[in-house]
Specification:
Length: about 425
């Protein structure tokens, strides 16, 4: 079956709600990626790479806690909201169950976090920064993203997030003027999250008249069990994505965390068009399961990623100068830019082959395999005292994404032989 663009156009025209929601969601994802780049050069110049590195590490610690608070509900409970969108009692059951669980995890996490921070003096030189950074979890705690996704009201998600993030960014430019102001950054960011979350809950409980009550424990437990597999997947995936930040700050230098983070941000920007394209094609591929079409798209995605990566490499001196304000050895970032090629192809195969063909377990296996590869490489580097170089962490990251791609392509090729 040939790739027929007219069929896709017909599909999109017949699903205007889908197209509108996708438009808002894509806008939000691009906005979230671009916004940090607006403050990046300013904060590096005002704070210096070391202090900004500590800000990034505090954000990573908060993002780990957010995984526990989120608990996979954003993905899993979206289905329940969508199915029962006309049943207000069921909507109340879902929303209240999720909020109760998240509040409980938030409280427990806070007790553990502040005990480690103050009693055991971890990050003792930056206690104030990490104390405020904990409240960055407010985005996951308060904002019921799953509710708006399930009701296909992505306009609200986009509007609230865009307004609150712009508010935070403007305040950062106004209030962060010297190195000693670095602890203000999580205050401003979390304030935006809290305002956005409370406004979203106002829409849910007041405008939509979803009554608040404490659900029965057996009801809450049902939603927890349903979300646990996805929580486990997210937790595994976060190891290879976030641990390097913490290890870099400990074994190399906090300043190098900024360079590593720049590589991650460039990688995500390069990959974003591919992931957006994957979302658009997913409905058709899931229905037709046309391996011939998938093969053609994989080659096109590969060529696109190579060309885009080449373009970023050409502009890399200008990008580095703009973002960092100092001359650096670009070799590490150039090697890092192999990662978007591997990650982009891997993401497409993961969503439009493994998930679209109902091979969800292989998606989970690929994450476990990748995590084992990452931990093995990191352990090997530690045993041989090699974790003292930014280049080593870059090579580990690139190799890990390459391993993920190889595993998913292996599953894909097995499908084509059948």
């Amino acid at each position: 079956m040939k790739f027929n663009l007219d069929k896709i156009k017909c599909f999109l025209k017949g699903n205007k709600v889908y197209v509108t929601n996708f438009k808002y969601l894509s806008l939000l994802e691009i906005f979230i990626l671009v916004m940090p780049l607006l403050t990046y050069p300013y904060l590096v110049r005002v704070l210096g790479k070391e202090l900004y590195g500590w800000v990034l590490i505090s954000q990573i610690v908060a993002s780990y806690i957010s995984i526990f608070i989120s608990f996979g509900f954003n993905e899993v409970t979206t289905r329940f909201i969508s199915i029962h969108r006309h049943d207000r009692n069921k909507l109340a059951e879902v929303v209240n169950s999720v909020l109760v669980v998240r509040m409980g995890v938030f409280f427990i996490s806070g007790v553990i976090f502040y005990t480690l921070l103050y009693k055991f003096n971890i990050y003792s030189d930056h206690t104030i920064l990490f104390s405020f950074a904990f409240f960055l979890v407010a985005d996951e705690l308060l904002f019921p993203k799953y509710y708006f996704l399930g009701l296909e009201r992505m306009k609200w998600i986009t509007l609230i997030n865009v307004v609150t993030r712009i508010f935070s960014v403007i305040l950062i430019f106004i209030l962060v003027n010297k190195p000693d102001d670095y602890y203000i950054i999580p205050i401003l960011t979390s304030t935006g999250f809290i305002i956005g979350g409370l406004f979203a809950l106002y829409i849910v409980y007041v405008k939509d008249r979803i009554g608040f009550y404490l659900p029965k424990s057996e009801i809450i437990w049902l939603y927890v069990k349903d979300a646990f597999p996805l929580f486990s997947t997210n937790l595994f995936a976060s190891i290879k994505d976030k641990v390097s930040y913490l290890l870099l700050g400990n074994f190399v230098s906090v300043s190098d965390v900024v360079l590593y983070d720049l590589g991650i941000k460039l990688m995500n920007l390069v990959v974003k068009p591919v992931t957006t394209f994957s979302v658009v094609l997913f409905p058709r591929i899931a229905i037709e399961r046309n391996l011939g079409l998938i093969k053609k798209i994989i080659f096109k995605v590969f060529y696109f990623l190579v060309l885009l990566t080449f373009g970023v490499n050409v502009l890399l001196p200008l990008i580095a100068d703009l973002m960092l304000g100092t001359e650096i050895d670009l070799m590490g970032l150039r090697i890092f830019l192999f990662a978007p090629i591997f990650l982009g192809l891997s993401s497409f195969v993961g969503s439009n082959v493994l998930i679209a063909f109902g091979k969800n377990k292989y998606m989970f296996y690929s994450i476990i395999f990748t995590t084992v590869v990452y931990l093995s490489l990191t352990g090997f580097a530690y045993l041989f005292n090699m974790l003292d170089s930014l280049m080593v962490f870059i090579l580990i990251t690139v190799t890990t994404y390459f391993a993920e791609l190889i595993y998913r392509l292996y599953v894909y090729f097995n499908l084509t032989r059948r």
